[in-house]
Amino acid sequence: MIQLYRPGTSAVHRLPAAVKLAVLAVTAVALSLAPPDPWIIGVALAAVFSLYGLARFPPIVPAAELWRLRWIVLVLGAALWIFVGPLTAWINTGRVVALVLLAGLLTLTTRMGELLAVLHAVLRPLRRCGVDVEAVAMTVSLAITLVPVVAGFADQVREAQRARGARLGIRWIVPLMVRTLRHADDVGDALAARGLG
User: Fold this and answer.
1) Cα–Cα distance, 34 to 158 (Å, whole number)
2) In the predicted model, is pLDDT for residue 2 greater than 50?
3) To the nearest whole number, what is the mean pLDDT of the chain?
4) Mean pLDDT computed over 123-147
5) d(CA 135, CA 161)
């Protein structure tokens, strides 16, 4: 099972998992509905970085999370810059970065068991409609925790290509997909071994 949690005693660590999930959900909705104002994105990014500080993580932790995202940011930002414009590139890329960093903070400060317990409680009413609450809760929690994992894979693939002297073209997406799918198979095998597959 994926475990990115880093033990700590900060205020962010002590917050209930339900509160942290709610903050992530509200932030995602707020950033999606917010007017396309570059200042709003700047404030959102500053707030996310300040939360890393509140969690008592050294600056190297958010910097490392951001570094893992660099190729995704470059590809997304460059595409938007070329086809839409620099302002839209900043706003939309900033939204993605803020949410991914916030999801990363959630995984770093919340145990998987706590996350699953909250998701079970929230989704329990859907059981009456025939929904497999355990499967949905596991899927949502894995989706959240896989965000920084896949970003890390992208970083490793690009570094491996650079070490071999390969051209840094769009072809890096293929090995990233292969690595991600292989990881998904490993996670599926682990879940099946625990009777959750």
Assistant:
1) 33
2) no
3) 81
4) 73
5) 37
